[in-house]
């Protein structure tokens, strides 16, 4: 007769979950938002009143929204005024504006300053179309127009 071997009670060992594969942002996504360096330490210009300066790339679209969000999240809690340079933006859609509006709103709710600079006409028209010029602080001074 074959003797059965007794199985030793197995301890419950949690199985290790495989880490999700990290997606590397595309070159276009990395170029969408890039930091603009401030003056060097030896520079005579001082940036005491201003803080980091973030420059948006040529596309501020849904494809670039995650990279933009990640980039802006890094400077969200910065106490100094954050300047967002919009001069390079050529294409902007609702998703890109949504990320930017959330950033501006969160900064202002925390009592921190944010400044949007050099917005091109393409950006301004998209913001105006969506009714976001005032939220973003881009509202042009009201002009008196006579309607006949």
List key phrases describing it.
Transcription Regulator spoIIAA, single chain, 4 helices, alpha/beta, 28% helix, 148 residues
Molecular structure report:
The protein is α/β, with parallel strands linked by helices and 148 residues long. It has a domain at 30-35 and 50-129: Transcription Regulator spoIIAA, CATH 3.30.750.24. Helix content is 28%, strand content 16%. It has helices at residues 27-32, 65-74, 94-109, 121-129, and strands spanning 33-35, 50-56, 59-60, 81-85, 91-92, 114-117. The strands form two sheets. A four-stranded mixed sheet has the order 1-2-4-6. α2 packs parallel to α3 (94-109).
Secondary-structure blueprint:
Blueprint: H1 27-32, E1 33-35, E2 50-56, E3 59-60, H2 65-74, E4 81-85, E5 91-92, H3 94-109, E6 114-117, H4 121-129
Parallel strand pairs: 2-4, 3-5, 4-6
Antiparallel strand pairs: 1-2
In short:
The protein is α/β, with parallel strands linked by helices.
Helix content: 25-40%
State the secondary-structure class: alpha/beta
Beginning-to-end CA distance, first to last residue: 110 Å
Distinct helical segment count: 4
Shape: elongated
Strand content: 15-25%
CATH topology of the domain at 30-35 and 50-129: Transcription Regulator spoIIAA
User: Biggest sheet, strands in spatial order?
Assistant: 1-2-4-6
- Quote the average pLDDT: 76
Tally the beta strands: 6
Radius of gyration of CA atoms, rounded to a whole number: 25 Å
The biggest sheet amounts to: 4 strands, mixed
pLDDT < 50 stretches = 28-49
- Oligomerization: single chain
What's the level 1 CATH class of the domain at 30-35 and 50-129?
Alpha Beta
């Amino acid at each position: 007769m074959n003797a059965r071997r007794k199985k030793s009670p197995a301890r419950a060992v949690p199985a290790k979950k495989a880490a999700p594969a990290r997606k590397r942002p595309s070159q276009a996504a990395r170029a969408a938002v890039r930091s603009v360096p401030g003056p060097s330490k030896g520079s005579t210009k001082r940036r005491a009143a201003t803080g980091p300066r973030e420059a948006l790339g040529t596309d501020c679209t849904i494809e670039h929204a995650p990279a933009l969000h990640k980039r802006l999240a890094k400077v969200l809690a910065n106490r100094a005024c954050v300047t967002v340079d919009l001069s390079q933006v050529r294409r902007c859609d609702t998703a890109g504006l949504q990320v930017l509006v959330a950033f501006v709103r969160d900064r202002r709710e925390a009592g921190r300053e944010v400044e949007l600079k050099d917005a091109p006409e393409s950006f301004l028209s998209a913001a105006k179309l969506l009714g976001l010029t005032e939220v973003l602080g881009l509202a042009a001074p009201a002009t008196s127009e006579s309607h006949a």
